[in-house]
Design brief:
The complex is a heterodimer of chains A (645) and B (460).
Chain A lengths: L10 E5 L2 E4 L3 H12 L4 E5 L13 E3 L3 H11 L3 H8 E7 L9 E6 L1 H14 L3 E5 L2 E9 L2 E9 L3 E4 L2 E4 L8 E4 L2 E4 L10 H9 L3 E8 L2 E3 L9 E3 L22 E5 L2 H9 L22 H7 L7 E6 L6 E5 L7 H8 L10 E3 L2 E8 L16 E3 L9 H19 L13 H12 L23 H12 L4 H23 L1 E2 L3 H9 L9 E2 H6 L5 H14 L11 H12 L1 H18 L17 H10 L4 H5 L6 H15 L1
Helix pairs in contact in A: 1-9, 2-9, 2-11, 3-4, 6-8, 11-12, 12-16, 13-15
Chain B lengths: L7 E4 L9 E6 L3 H8 E2 L8 H4 L4 E8 L6 E10 L10 E6 L3 H13 L3 E2 L4 H8 L5 H12 L3 H11 L2 H25 L10 H30 L1 E7 L5 H9 L17 E7 L2 E7 L9 H16 L2 E7 L7 H4 L5 E6 L8 H7 L4 E4 L8 H16 L11 H22 L4 H19 L5 H10 L5
Parallel strand pairs in B: 1-7, 8-10, 8-11, 11-12, 12-13
Antiparallel strand pairs in B: 1-2, 2-6, 3-4, 4-5, 5-6, 9-10
The chains are: A alpha+beta (645), B alpha/beta (460).
């Protein structure tokens, strides 16, 4: 920084173990994890009132994303708890499609969420919050290893640190485009972070340009809801956090309307003014979240598209128009919005815009999210090519945990693809890289039947506890839950009922094939039409017929849920576990860090290049790299075997 | 496992057959090795191989350097990397001598620094060096194993990737089915603009039908590749070897009238109107105390079990019938031989065997041979009925994977019909797709690779 007199301003402002750059969903989880694990942490936000901002949808969760939030919670992250505190609607999606694909989704009071998260950060030991733009990351090279030493703010304040976590989101070299207008900006009217791009480039990071967009926010008073379809929340709400036992919220509905032929005509008539189609935008946008004009062009045979009107919070009249993201000029936006039923007199509060930003090619990262270029420099969130608050938070948590573990001299935490969506997400990003903003989907997981939202605690609480983010009290509760599950499963398999008259009658009533001989309760529960309640009833009737006493067991709902899924899906769960075993075999074949892939002559040229770039930790990871063929994998095997000799 | 540096060699023609044998050497040292052992008629060495241009052939001799002995007369082909089968330097030596000579030449090549190729290692290298894909590699093995023109045609077609293309097309169909299901799962809030479940299930059923045809074609494929297995059984000295010779068209087995001459089984590959046939002549089935012969009898029983058709030969001058052979649950042709001898039980035998497919022959008088040929052809054409697919599966790994995939896909349909949730239905379809992918190498699995490569036959 140069002051008005032309001298360089620079002063040491503080000393920390970790500096977290950016206080979005990734930055917050990263900072909280570090601080809780006992390393001295500072988090920088461009604006402290924009901490954990939801710059797009006022919603958290959804297919696969809901699973991510549950996993973050099971590991000891913050997101789920704040969702439970600030949700204004919660729904379980995909209810009829099987437990593996069910996901929670919540509408959030956006402002309240920010305040809650800020407050949680403020209350956390070892954590300082600062409003500043970080413009430089200083490093030093010793013994051939480059490591982080300082971060520098735009005002010249220098913070000494041993590690830094970069979570710049869409701020990095951000540029907003609305039709013919474009300007440097962060999201939601915030300042962009321009200079850090050069810093990263100078350190040797390859930057890619990505693009995303958001629809307009409009005033509720200007909307006519009379012909829109209300989208209510669930009658009985399932909380996001495993620690929230009961949750009662006053639920607010969303509303559904549709675009029509007129909307289409307006857009197609003005398509030449779209920066997407006249070449102004160079960043690659997500295919799964197209702008409205994109939908009109790519699906030209469709005359209507869904528009969900979502509330931005409890204390605001602002509404979000999901499905109407656009980068057309403001006047065109106005015109097409008003063609939609219910929006004829709409009053726009914030126009829709596209935003371009810099991201790194995440293939330079290790599975811990630390870069291989600079020791102690971690990356999380959109800068790694992902999109979504949940994806960002998951990476922030893993980066934060690993950064702290490294500073504490402990073993890293690596979650693999068979353990969590978090593992799938990170492995996909660092192994395969991405060309468009990466969104988590359940189909990305090979082991979907195991990675359910209901068992995230079973999969990850132990890890969170070992790392140190799960309290003794919570851990004890977790242990007790699964002790009860195990006990009940054993009881069901050992308790037999016989076809006594009332049992026969009851089974007939629920439409189940009659029992011919004795059966265990487990066998009964395995039948698709038999619920847990039926099993208890049958047990009771059987005992009464035999003149014996019956004592009804009362188990927590979460225990019963696990018991039912374990019994009903046992065959499929076993199959998936076998697949996991196969998968682990390859993951356990580790590739030494010092391999020179250019020396393995029977690797294809493409494989050598890709392997040198990604530097996979195992044969398994190598096999997932794009451009590495089965033949290359065999060659790697042979090389490994030879090396051992 | 040495791989990169070493040079491998093997006899790449099947043992015991054909007038010439080929020794193939592949790897960095192959040219240097050949140069050391290749000479002119007078034994003169002169870097002939080093001076040879790539992809040319040269006439000369193979000489053992140490003893100075000329081992064989040969044609030597030099092919430089990368335009070779393995993409390494390759030398091929066409020898003219016996199998024993071939072995001696090979041993000499080993002494010069090559190592014995593991089964299938040439093809493995071709595959590793990116020259061929997995299903092509397997087709090469079938090519080597194929005995007839028709089989070679099927193998060559597969080599061209026809099977890969069909499998890939089927796989893509399934991928699109999955895409439909996955969109439904990952975008639950969106109104389905997609095809209904019924259409999806129809696509799935079409795929199942196509895969079933492919799977059924395996038996056909096996017949084409391995040939129709015909075992000739019967008591000693009924004329089994004579029948075999008559069918094969020349004296292959030793023909004598001393019972038990054919002590082991003898195999002969023949073609009947383009149909590959493996004829097996068995030792006469009878109780015997001769140890060697006992082994032969045991083998004969095994061959009867393996056969597609059994020809049971009976000497019409003797009244006995082996009920054990008649009771076998396989296509059975009963041949009543020696009808030219007047004192016989023919009438009696024909009466007893009226429920069987009986042909009366006299091999010495050349009566009935045509009928035997005709009966074999009829059986084969019946086998062909019901095959209606663009490709024929000839490889057992392909068949197993197709069957495994079929089982998953059928399970998916079954689960759909019984109202199981979508996550379970999708699981089985995913497994079906991934299993098919293993045929063309679209998904990696170390065991698949190990399994295939250990099955490769020696040489190409």
């Amino acid at each position: 920084m140069v002051n008005r007199k032309g001298t360089k301003l620079r002063f040491i402002a503080g000393e920390y173990d970790v500096a977290v750059i950016g206080a979005g969903h990734a930055g917050c989880e990263a900072a909280l994890a570090c601080a809780k694990l006992g390393v001295k942490t500072v988090i920088f936000a461009m604006n402290l009132d924009s901490i954990a901002n939801m710059a797009c949808n006022p919603s958290i969760g959804g297919s696969a994303k809901g699973q991510l939030v549950r996993e973050i919670d099971a590991l000891g992250g913050a997101m789920a708890k704040i969702v439970d505190k600030t949700a204004i609607q919660i729904r379980m999606l995909n209810k009829g499609k099987g437990p593996a694909v069910q996901s929670l989704r919540a509408q959030i009071d956006r402002r309240k969420y920010q305040q809650e998260m800020k407050h949680v950060l403020e209350l956390t030991e070892n954590l300082d919050l600062k409003q500043a733009e970080i413009v430089d990351i200083e490093t030093v090279e010793e013994d051939g290893i480059r490591r982080v030493t300082h971060v520098v703010t735009h005002t010249g304040a220098v913070y000494k640190c041993k590690a830094a976590i970069v979570c710049t989101g869409t701020f990095l070299n951000g540029r907003i485009i609305i039709g013919d207008v474009s300007y440097q900006s962060g999201p939601d009217g915030l300042f962009p972070s321009i200079r850090l791009s050069d810093t990263l480039r100078n350190l040797g990071f390859e930057l890619i340009r990505l693009k995303t967009g958001t629809p307009a926010r409009v005033n509720r008073r200007s909307i006519d809801f009379s012909n829109m379809v209300p989208q209510p929340g669930d009658d009985e709400v399932v909380p996001f956090s495993f620690e929230t036992e009961v949750l009662e919220i006053e639920q607010v509905p969303c509303w559904l309307t549709h675009t029509n032929i007129k909307t289409k005509e307006i857009i197609l008539k003005n398509i030449h003014r779209s920066p997407m189609y006249n070449g102004t935008i160079e960043g690659v946008g997500p295919r799964y979240c197209p702008s409205l004009e994109d939908k009109m062009v790519r699906f030209s045979d469709k005359d209507r598209h869904q528009v969900f009107v979502e509330p931005m919070g409890a204390n605001t009249e602002e509404m979000y128009l999901q499905g109407m993201s656009s980068s057309l000029p403001e006047d065109v936006q106005m015109e097409f919005m008003r063609s939609v039923e219910g929006l004829e007199n709409v009053s726009v509060m914030r126009p829709a815009y596209a935003i371009e930003y810099d991201a790194i090619d995440a293939r330079v990262l290790k599975l811990t999210l630390e870069s291989r270029i600079v020791d102690g420099l971690y990356f999380a969130g959109q800068i790694n090519g992902s999109s979504g608050y949940e994806e960002a938070a998951a990476q922030g948590l893993v980066a934060g945990i690993n950064c702290a573990l490294k500073l504490l001299g402990k073993e890293p935490l690596i979650i693999d693809r068979s353990e969590a969506y978090i593992g799938v997400l990170i492995d996909d990003l660092v192994t395969r890289g991405t060309r468009e903003p990466y969104r988590m989907m359940t189909s990305a997981s090979e082991y979907r039947l195991l990675l359910r939202q209901d068992n995230a605690d079973e999969r990850l609480t132990e890890k969170g506890y070992k790392v140190g983010l799960i309290s003794e009290e919570r851990y004890a509760k977790f242990k007790e839950k699964y002790r009860l599950v195990k006990e009940e499963l054993e009881r069901l398999s050992k308790t037999h009922v016989s076809p006594t008259p009332s049992v026969i009658e009851y089974m007939e009533k629920i439409g189940s094939t009659p029992l011919k001989s004795g059966a265990s309760l487990e066998e009964l529960l395995r039948r698709p039409e038999v619920e847990y309640e039926d099993v208890l009833k049958i047990e009771e009737l059987n005992l009464k017929d035999k003149g014996l006493d019956y004592v009804r067991r009362t188990l927590p709902k979460s225990v019963i849920e696990q018991v039912c899924i374990n019994v009903k899906y046992s065959g499929y769960i076993k199959l998936q576990l076998q697949q996991v075993e196969q998968f682990r075999k390859l993951e356990k074949k580790l590739l030494p860090e010092d391999i020179d892939y250019n020396e393995i002559s029977n690797l294809s040229l493409e494989a050598r290049e890709k392997l040198s770039k990604v530097r996979p930790a195992s044969i398994g990871q190598a096999s997932r790299i794009l451009g590495v063929s089965p033949a290359d994998i065999t060659a790697l095997y042979i090389y490994l075997t030879k090396r051992k000799e | 496992m040495n791989y990169v540096e070493d040079t491998i060699a093997a006899i790449s023609t099947p043992p015991g057959r054909g007038g010439i044998g080929i020794i193939r050497i592949s790897g960095k040292e192959s040219i240097a090795i050949a140069n050391k052992i290749f000479c002119m008629a007078n034994g003169r060495l002169g870097d002939f191989v080093l001076k040879m241009p790539s992809h040319t052939i040269k006439y000369g001799f193979i000489r053992d350097l140490e003893s100075g002995e000329i081992l064989d007369e040969c044609m030597l082909t030099r092919m430089d990397a990368p335009n070779t089968y393995t993409r390494e330097d390759i030398i091929e030596i066409n020898c003219h001598g016996s199998y024993a000579v071939l072995r001696r030449v090979l041993e000499l090549v080993f002494r010069m620094g090559a190592r014995c190729a593991e089964p299938g290692e040439f093809t493995k290298r071709a595959f590793l060096n990116g020259r061929i894909d997995l299903s092509e590699a397997e087709a090469v093995i079938d090519l080597i194993n194929s005995h007839t023109e028709e089989a070679r045609k099927a193998a060559i077609e597969q080599l061209g990737g026809r099977l890969s293309k069909q499998i890939e097309r089927i796989r893509q169909g399934l991928v699109s089915v999955l895409a439909e299901i996955e969109v439904n799962i990952d975008y639950p809030e969106y109104e389905s603009e997609l095809v209904t479940a019924d259409v999806t299930m129809k696509t799935l059923n079409n795929v199942i039908n196509e895969l079933e045809e492919l799977s059924k074609s395996y038996r056909q494929g096996r017949l084409i590749r391995e040939g129709l297995k015909i075992t000739i059984a019967g008591k000693p000295n009924v004329g089994k070897s004579s029948l075999m010779n008559a069918l094969a068209g020349y004296n292959r087995a030793i023909v004598s009238n001393i019972p038990g001459t054919t002590r082991d089984t003898i195999e002969e590959y023949i073609e009947i109107d383009g149909i590959p046939v493996i004829l097996t002549d068995t030792a006469g089935i009878r109780e015997t105390e001769d140890v060697i012969e006992q082994i032969g009898v045991k083998k004969a029983e095994e061959k009867i079990q393996e056969a597609d058709i059994v020809i049971y030969m009976i000497d019409s001058t003797e009244p006995d019938i082996d009920e054990k052979i008649l009771s076998i649950n396989k296509p059975l042709i009963v041949v009543l031989n020696k009808i030219d001898i007047e004192e016989n039980y023919l009438e009696d035998l024909v009466k007893k065997l009226r429920d069987y497919d009986v042909i009366e022959t006299s091999l010495t008088e050349d009566i009935g041979i045509k009928e035997v040929f005709g009966r074999i052809k009829k059986y084969f054409s019946e086998e062909k009925i019901g095959i209606n697919t663009e490709n024929i599966i000839t490889n057992v790994r392909h068949k197993n994977l197709i069957d495994k995939s079929l089982a998953s896909l059928k399970k998916a349909v079954e689960n759909y019909n019984t109202g199981m949730p979508l996550d379970i239905i999708a699981f089985d379809i995913w497994n079906g797709v991934n299993t098919l992918g293993e045929i063309t190498g679209a998904s990696v699995n170390e065991e698949v690779l190990d399994n295939i490569f250990s099955r490769f036959c020696l040489g190409k």
